[in-house]
Write a structure and sequence with these properties.
Blueprint lengths: L16 H12 L5 E2 H8 L3 H13 L3 E7 L6 E6 L1 H4 L6 H4 L1
Antiparallel strand pairs: 1-3, 2-3
Length: about 100
C-alpha cells in the first residue's frame, strides 16, 4: 500500500510575500480574471517571475485558468482564485451587518 502523504494546502503564513501579493492582486479583480502580463505590470515585476509563481500557485490549487484573452500578441491564460485561495483571506462579515 502506498504511504505517500497527501499534499497539504498552503496556509497564508506559508506563502511568500510575492505570492501573497499576487493572490491579493487577483482577488482585487475577482470579476475580471488576470493574465500573467497584467499581473506583471500591476506588481512591477517580470513576466517570468509572475509565471513561476502562477505555475506554483496553480499546482497548489490556489489559482485556476478561467479562460483565454488576447493581450496584443498570442492569447494569454486568464487566472482566477480557487475556493481554497479565497479561504486564505479574512472575511469582514461585521462590516456587512
Amino acid at each position: 500500500m502506498d504511504q505517500t502523504p497527501a499534499p497539504t494546502m498552503p496556509t497564508s503564513g506559508h506563502l511568500s510575500e510575492a505570492r501573497r501579493r499576487l493572490l491579493s492582486q487577483v482577488l482585487r479583480h475577482r470579476g475580471h480574471a488576470r493574465t500573467v502580463e497584467e499581473l506583471a505590470e500591476a506588481l512591477a515585476v517580470s513576466r517570468n517571475a509572475v509565471q513561476q509563481h502562477v505555475t506554483a500557485l496553480e499546482r497548489d490549487g490556489l489559482l485556476r485558468v478561467l479562460g483565454h484573452r488576447t493581450t496584443g500578441g498570442r492569447p494569454g491564460r486568464a487566472y482566477t482564485l480557487t475556493e481554497a485561495a479565497l479561504e486564505l483571506f479574512p472575511r469582514s462579515y461585521a462590516r456587512l451587518a
